[in-house]
Amino acid sequence: MPILPVVIAGTGDIWPRGSKFMKSGKAMIKTLEPIDITKYNKDNIEQLVTETHNKMKKVYDEMVTAIQ
Prior knowledge:
Elements: E1 6-9, H1 11-14, E2 28-31, H2 45-67
């Protein structure tokens, strides 16, 4: 099964941890392209983790900038 990365930004601002109520604000969610995992195995799994993290972090940073 491919990995389907989902990136969420802004929810911490509108619904702070421990709060019972949401505040007014903006949040975004974006689904990225599926990642084919067939080229990965136990010897290069860290590469998969790093590549996935980098893709998601780039999109997250763009989303945070767009929300501000």
